[in-house]
Write a structure and sequence with these properties.
- The structure is a homodimer.
- By secondary structure, the first copy, chain A, is mainly beta.
- Chain A has a single domain, classed as PRC-barrel domain (SH3 type barrels, Roll), CATH 2.30.30.
- Helix content of chain A is about 15%, strand content about 40%.
- The first copy, chain A, is built from two helices and six strands.
- Chain A has a six-stranded mixed β-sheet.
- The first copy, chain A, is globular and about 35 Å long.
- The interface between A and B is medium-sized, with 28 and 28 residues.
- Chains A, B: This is Photosystem reaction center subunit H.
């Protein structure tokens, strides 16, 4: 299956039972939240893995986004991301082979989006 | 399917991609973590839903446990729960019909385990 795996001992991947939409500030629906990466020790979601693109589930890619870049809209029950679609699409992602989501990968994601790196250990 | 559903607008249920074992302090393996309930706004895991009992997946029941009662053991990559198996088994649970996990249900879980109630709103 073209799904990302639980990446390290520090993070657990948990797939949303009911998918949640994600859109950019301007209202473009950019995709949905496929899963959360949860720091096992603290119980904090460090990243949301977005599912973007594809057709009928084929050709989708997965984009890990630092959770702090998502804002929950309780009225419409969806997340609004504070980066635009083009930046998202150029960001770290995978299609079928999930990377090892270690400190180096987390640092790369943080660096791309210009946020503080998560300390996973 | 005998799985719990995403319970309210405030909480998202996310099923672990790789199951994690849970045991009690005395080393009895009591089950596994089936899912996390994640507070959508804050990104905090409020509850772990444990899967206990059953045989080959039949007859399992689901037990929501306040996350603060789980301690992560990084050496053995599992959670240790600070309540004993008997208390767990007597706690709020469901088999096939997941409850609406609203404030009243969260309060009931908190009250049973004697922890501070989560404010979901």
């Amino acid at each position: 299956m073209a799904t990302p795996d639980a990446p390290t001992q520090q993070l657990a991947q948990a797939a949303l039972s009911s998918s949640m939409k994600v859109e950019s500030r301007d209202g473009d629906v950019t995709g949905s939240v496929y899963s959360f990466l949860v720091h096992k020790d603290s119980g904090r979601v460090t990243h949301a893995v977005l599912s973007l693109g594809g057709f009928l589930g084929v050709g989708k890619s997965y984009y890990p986004l630092p959770f702090e870049l998502l804002q929950f809209d309780p009225v419409r029950d969806r997340y609004v991301v504070t980066v635009d679609k083009r930046m998202l699409e150029g960001g770290p992602s995978w299609a079928s082979n999930a990377p090892v989501f270690d400190q180096a990968y987390a640092d790369r994601v943080a660096s791309y989006y210009g946020v503080r790196a998560e300390r996973l250990a």
